[in-house]
């Protein structure tokens, strides 16, 4: 996952003024001293300790936190006895995926439905970009793409975000590599390849003509209902 993480150490002692004392940040996994006072003891420039002047507040800013940064970090003050405060950092890897097979074949005139699931993000994405061969199809949640009314995008944002791309009346020009990309890029893009062709390959065909295809709205409702039921079932099991 690639987003800034800030650990905040708030150390106060009513019996002594700890302003001006040396504060150290230590990573418990390997007991590595990240910083002591104004001195930094790591070559990793993502770690940036900071002290707010005239306060008892110290920060450890980790830019572009990675999964391996997870663990316990300790803020230590050079008092006697020693004062310390520990934090457990859990960096969650965001994931995105396009439901279905990696290669989809559809007949001309049918409707293409691609559903992208983005989960385990620190916060919902601002936008979900849909690309075809690096060309942006739409860059925001809208009822229709401004340049092509055959293309619709519906997005629901939350702990698990869902974006559905719907392309009606499929044409050969709609063939290509499709990807959904959350912004900010908490998760790597998800990809799938679509072929619009006159061929017979039922195993790989996405059956989505106007009569039997689900609309993007109904797909969203179906997935959301599944997620709600899943969470209720988990709560029931816990109880």
From TrEMBL:
Coiled-coil ranges (or none): none
GO terms (BP aspect): synapse organization
InterPro entries tied to this protein: Ig-like_dom (IPR007110), Ig-like_dom_sf (IPR036179), Ig-like_fold (IPR013783), Ig_sub (IPR003599), Ig_sub2 (IPR003598), Zig-8 (IPR037448)
Gene Ontology CC annotation, any one: neuron projection membrane
Pfam families: Ig_3
Domain Ig-like: 81-181
Cited PROSITE patterns: IG_LIKE
Official protein name in the record: Down syndrome cell adhesion molecule-like protein
Organism (species): Leptotrombidium deliense
Lineage: Eukaryota, Metazoa, Ecdysozoa, Arthropoda, Chelicerata
